Structure formats: C-alpha cells, structure tokens
Amino acid sequence: MGATPGLLYVTMEPRQGLSLDQFHDWYNNEHGPTRLRLPHIFPNGLRYRATDGQRPTFLADYDVTDVEYLETPTYTNLRENRTPREADTIGRVVVDRRFFDFVAAQQRPDFVPAEQLSDAEAEGLVLVNVEVSLKDGVDTAEAEKAIVDWYVEEHIPMLSKIPGWLRSRVFRTPSRIEDATTGPVKIATLHEYAKTNGLDGPEHKASMDTPRRTEVFTNYTAAKSRRTYELFYVFGPAPRELAALSTRPAAAAFTTADGRITTTPGLTPAIDAYVTTPDGLEIPYRLEGNPSPTAPTVAFSNSLLTDLSMWDPLVAILKARRPDLRLLRYDTRGRGDVPSPPVPATLDLLADDIATVLKALRIERLHALVGVSMGGATTLKFALKYPALVGKFVACDFNVASSEANTAAWKDRVQVAEGVDGMGKLAPVTVGRWFHEVSMRERGSVVEWMTAMVARNHVRGFRYGCQALWGYDLRGEMGGCEVEGLLAVGDGDGKGALVRAMEGFKGGIGASGVELKVVKNAGHLPMCEAPEGFWEAVEGFL
Asked: What is this structure's pTM?
C-alpha cells in the first residue's frame, strides 16, 4: 500500500492562569520546531488564530507525508517523552488533536504554500474549515463518495471564482490509523484565501445555493460546522521566538535535557540552539538583541578555530548602541565535529550553511553580514552567491585568494593538531600569530580567552574545516558583486602585510570597489582585540 498523505490538526485553548507568553514561548520555541526537525514526516507547520469569536482560539496544522508515520516511535516518542515544561504547559491547555487523511485538492495556478512565503506575506492569510458528518443509517461509502464528488466537481470550482481564493483541500476523519469507533465519519475541507478576499460575497453565496448541494446535504449529511482563522505564525525547524521570551521572568529559562537548546527570557532574551544542514551537520547558533521578528538582523561569521563567542565584545557594544538590531551568530563549519562521512569544507559550502541557517530561522534577508578571516572570505562568497539574502556586508582580515604557501602551512598545522595535545600546542602559536604586539603585551585576559577558545576546537573539524582555505580564488567573480560592502583589517595583521593585500584588491570588488577601514593596534581579530576601535570603523556603514 502506498503512502497516505494527511494532516495533523490540533486546536488549543489555554486555561485560565496560563499566560499567552508562556503558551507561545513553549509552542514556538519547543513544540513546533521539534516537529519540523522531522521533515520526512512534517514538511510544514502553521499556527492560526480564530476570527469567528468561537473557541478554541488557536489552531495548528501540519501536513503529514504519510499518516502511518504518526504511529511510529519517531513521532510517538515526542509525546511520551515530554519535557517538564511541556508537560506543565500542555496540562493547562484544552487540546483537541486529530488526524485527517488527504482526499483531494484544487488550487490556483500561482498558488504558493505559506511556508514558502515570507512572514509578511504569510501572516494574515485566511483559513476556513468546514466539516460535515454523515447521517446515521446511510451507506458510508456511498455518502462519502457523493459528498466528495460534489466538492470536487461543483463546490470547489465555484469557490475558485471568489476573489482571493487560493486553495481548497478535502480530507476524511477519522484517519485510517485511528479506531473507526472514535467518532462519526466526517468530511473536512480546508479553504485558503488571501488576506483581502470575497468571502460572503455573491460568488460565495452562489456556491452555497445549488440543487446538487441541496440534494447532497438532504440525503447524506447530519451536521455541518464552520470555523474561520487567520495565519499568525509559520514554524521552521529552529526556535526564533524572542518576543514572548522578552516578557517572561528569569525563572522561565529553559534548557533541553541534552543541553543543545537554551532559551533565556527577560529584557535581553536569547536563544541558543542549532540548525541541521543537508549533509547532517548540526550548526549551533545564538539569536538575541531586538526581540521583534521584523527587526533588521545582523549576522556574524567567525574565523576558523574560534566559536561564536568571539563576537562577545562587539555584540555587547551593539546591544548598547544599536538596540534596533536583532543579532545572529553561528559556529562556522569546522568548529565542531564534521558530518559522517566527513566532507571537506569549501567556501561554497560555508556560504550554503549561512543560507541554511537563515531559512531555518525564516530570515528573509539580512540587514548585514559581518565576517572575519575565513568568515570574511565566506562573507564575500555569500554576497556573491546569495545577493538577495543580504543588504550589505563587512568582510574583515582575509584574502580573496589562497596561495600554495598558505595551503602548505594549513597542512602543517593539521599535522600539529592531530599530534599529542595538538590543539593545546597549536593554540598559543596561533594566537601569537594572530594578535597585535600591543594585545600580547597589554591584553592578557583577551589573549588567555582566545587561546582557550582555540584549544577547544574539534581536531577533526579543524582538519576538514581548514580545507576551505586551500586553493580558493574569488578574484574572477568578485567584480560582479552587487551587494554594498566594506572591508576592515587590523593594522598589525601579518605585520601589516594583510593591510597591503586588502588595499590591493579592494578596488576590484563590485563595479566601483569598496572602502577599506584600518583598525589601529589590532591584528587578525580586531573586533576581539580592539572592539571600540572596530566599532568606530564600521558604525557608519552598519
């Protein structure tokens, strides 16, 4: 037997005493994303709010690729192994959870599913749910066929003439995976409309008044119900709900049992979680700053051997001086372990990773992307490959092409890293090469912080991650860059050699070149060594 597509259809009404912020924080940051991390089962997840004054107020529906998946441990374990927070919250919600089997669908030629739209395009779309139950004593198969045929052959074609109609789908419930004695057979239809539409207009009224409809309802239906909703949230596989977190008390902080997801509530909300790439690599990220989902977002791409915490000094400045910005950091491929089987990193793959993170977080377009060293090369590559996803970029302390000598140097460092206490030996040498002499002499705590960070890098991650810097060359494509850019570099990086190199190629980026800012008394990581000086260099551009 082939797959039976269907729908998981859940209505919810928070009980008295459960705040909506707690409800939305749990649902948007835990419950929904957990299911979207199973794309072979749930390709999407949508939340709706009732517009008809009836209860339950909230609806969530998830398309299901095959309803039989809903009986497998992959799904049932989610319900059986609830976190304490989920158990507490769901215990204070009135829940009606049903499975629908897909029967038929019709849609406009230009229909685009909500999950493929931006949030601005999707939010406010209208959903109408109509359910009809069968009369007692009728032949079930005959009645179902008569009702479905009427929908497919007459009713939906007439609905399609309503201005703003997008799609209609026909389902059956109970699903074949449920016991047929759990309730009467119902035919459920979901009708989707644009925000501005002709519902209750002449076309709609005409669809409700035909001889065939009268015959079908007279002979086969016992009851009809109708609910109307508007879409207000589209799930992705990564939690991003800062707004609800921003009004919750510190005691509402949440961490999953495996420690891979943490939400920090309060006036400075933050989410630490991860995104899974197509090749199975888990990329940690941190989302913080302005909690508004429409706030302009600045993302940061770290250097090889560092993690997302390298941006701490700059992020602290941005939070204080640019509270309008939402801030996104992630660990560049190579910081942690590698996929299985191992995949050598390339600049193309690193740029793809950023696009994967943005898609998971439903960030349509970055205000800016800032990257340093390998992250700087990644930033330029991302601007070249995905110009529609970023408004401007700041690329720091990098070169647009590697050399044979650089490739050989990376191979030598890999050999050191794979030796006894290799990262421990590589870390102080690396930081000594990176940092300005002023930093090495006067910024001991920063040197210690960075040395410890480098020493913690995953050895195999370094081996495969550093290969992105072997034999790359962006010179042939950088002239076609259409994104506004800025370059920055520490004045002591490579004892001044990188300043000269970046001066040499800045004019070749885009049609008219880009500006280069030099940060004094800084080396390879100016945002770590001299964060105030770096901020002064980029403030006007950002």
From this structure: 0.96
